[in-house]
Write a structure and sequence with these properties.
The protein has one domain (17-172): Nucleoside Triphosphate Pyrophosphohydrolase. It contains 4 helices and 9 strands. The chain has helices at residues 21-26, 75-87, 141-150, 157-172, and strands at residues 5-9, 15-20, 31-39, 45-50, 61-62, 65-67, 93-104, 110-121, 133-139. Strands 3, 4, 5, 6, 7, 8 and 9 form a 7-stranded mixed β-sheet that branches. It has a two-stranded antiparallel ribbon with strand order 1-2. The relative contact order is 0.21.
Length: 178
C-alpha cells in the first residue's frame, strides 16, 4: 500500500507541494490538517479515544476526529470524509479558525500542522470505526475541563491547546439552544 500524501504549506497555508505522511511527521514538515469537534444538541462534546495501534498519540482522548486533506481535496471535504470514516457521523460543519503548532510526539515523530478547526452539531450517535477509534463518550464542557486539569496526560496535545477556544466560539456565537 502506498503511503498517503499530505499537503505541505507555508505559514500562510499556501500549498508548497506534497510529502508522504510519515516523512512529514519524521522531518517536522509544516502540512495541512483538519480537526473536527462535534457537540450534540444538549451541548455534550463527542470525544474519541484514539485506537491503541495508532502511529502516535495512541489511546489518548481527543476531539471527534482529525485528518490530513488529500492533494486536491478541500479541508471541508476532508473533515466530512474523516467524520464519516472514523465516527460514522454526517452533519453540517463550519470552520471556526485555523492555527499552527509544532509538537514532538512519541515514536520520534513531530506534528507540525496548519490545522483547520471545524464544528458540527448532531443528535446522531457515533458508530465508530474500531481500527481508528477505541471508544467514544459524550461529556459536558465542565466535565471535560475538570478532567483535563486533573488528567492532562490522557488527552492529545492539540486538543488541550484548542478546546477552550472552541468552547468560546460555541458560547460567543450562541450555537446551542438556550
Amino acid at each position: 500500500m502506498t503511503e498517503p500524501l499530505v499537503i505541505l504549506v507555508d505559514e500562510n497555508d499556501n500549498p508548497k507541494g506534497v510529502a508522504g505522511k510519515m516523512e512529514a511527521h519524521k522531518k517536522a514538515l509544516l502540512h495541512r490538517a483538519v480537526s473536527v469537534f462535534i457537540i450534540n444538541p444538549e451541548g455534550k462534546w463527542i470525544l474519541q479515544r484514539r485506537a491503541l495501534d495508532k502511529y502516535h498519540s495512541k489511546g489518548l482522548w481527543t476531539n471527534s476526529c482529525c485528518t490530513h486533506p488529500h492533494p486536491g481535496e478541500s479541508s471541508t471535504d476532508a473533515a466530512h470524509r474523516r467524520l464519516r470514516e472514523e465516527m460514522g457521523l454526517e452533519c453540517d460543519l463550519r470552520e471556526l479558525f485555523a492555527f499552527t503548532y509544532i509538537e514532538k510526539l512519541d515514536n520520534d515523530l513531530t506534528e507540525h500542522e496548519f490545522d483547520h478547526v471545524f464544528l458540527g452539531i448532531t443528535a446522531m450517535e457515533p458508530v465508530i470505526n474500531t481500527e481508528e477509534v477505541e471508544e467514544w463518550e459524550a461529556v459536558s464542557f465542565d466535565e471535560l475541563h475538570k478532567d483535563i486539569r486533573e488528567n492532562p496526560d490522557d488527552y492529545t496535545y492539540w486538543f488541550k491547546m484548542i478546546y477552550e477556544r472552541v468552547n468560546s466560539h460555541i458560547s460567543e456565537n450562541k450555537l446551542l439552544p438556550e
